[in-house]
Amino acid sequence: MNKILQIASSRRTWAWPYVLFMLLFVILPLILVGVYAFTDIEGHFTLRNFAKFFSHSEAIQTFLYSVMIAVCNTAICLLIGYPAAYIMAQEDFRTPKVMAMLFILPMWINFLLRTVATVELFNIFGLPLGEGALLFGLCYDYLPFMIYPIYNTLQKMDNSLVEAAYDLGANRWQSFWKVIVPLSMPGVYSGIVMVFMPTVSTFAIAELLTHNNIKLFGSLIQDYITTTDLLNYGAVLSLVLLIIIGLTSFFGDNNSETEKGGMI
Predict the structure, then answer these.
(1) Contact present, 46 and 38 (Cβ < 8 Å)
(2) DSSP character for 43?
(3) Of 35, 96, 115, 193, whose CB neighbour count within 10 A is largest?
(4) pTM score, two decimals?
């Protein structure tokens, strides 16, 4: 009995479910993507899938267009989200929890249902579905992911640094740009990553809000993955996207460490 209690109280024992989850649903799928990317239909090793990607104009153009849409959506979310987060983080702002709840409420509903509702709203008001509707829907879905990292960073910021800037002769505008904005950059970067990467890889939102007339990189991956003869090429597109996400996260971690070191 004591041995059972000792095993149950061990941290390693409780870590095993998470290890199994990571193996089955994270590591194994990544391995399968890599295997399919470097093999052909018959299972033989090949690099033709990568050569096809770099010579496939449709894939390159779709990827670049997806990046452009992701940049626009990220910029819109940042322009809307930063002022909202800044206002919510102010000490004299009395209803931050109410504002936070208003931003959280749409997240309680599945994003596909929200997107379908957005389509219906555009139909009711007679607005055309296209690139504008796509950007509206993307911003609506991903705006909270921009607001909350920035809000959390601003809320934890030491306000005495702003007061010190005032004591040194800085006005409100100067203290904002030279103190608040630099200190909020870790939250800004986290928000950018959390908005940019899902936007590049999304497909359902683009299909619903454009009647499948606009294809993003995620839609292209879906088309090839669901086609048996082109499964390997779809795996290459997925691997390319994973590499980009990994590199972004890697450089982001380095930037965060540099900022922390600079502040110390």
Answers:
(1) yes
(2) S
(3) 115
(4) 0.82
DSSP-derived letter for residue 125 is T
User: Coil, strand, or helix at residue 39?
Assistant: strand
pLDDT at 255 over 70: no
H or E segment and range at residue 81: helix 57-89
- Give the confidence band of 2 by pLDDT, cuts at 50, 70, 90: low
**DSSP labels for 89-107?**
H-TT-S-HHHHHHHHHGGG
First to last CA, the chain: 50
Q: Which residue(s) pair with 39 in the sheet?
A: 45
* CATH, domain range 55-263: 1.10.3720.10
Whether residue 98 contacts residue 188, with contact meaning beta carbons closer than 8 Å, is answered with no
**Residue 201, CB half-sphere, CA atoms under 13 Å: how many?**
15
The domain limits of the chain are 55-263
Report helix, strand or coil for 45: strand
Amino acid at 30: L
Per-residue pLDDT for 202 more than 50? yes
- Give per-residue pLDDT as tens, 160-199: 888 888 888 888 888 889 889 999 999 999 999 899 988 9
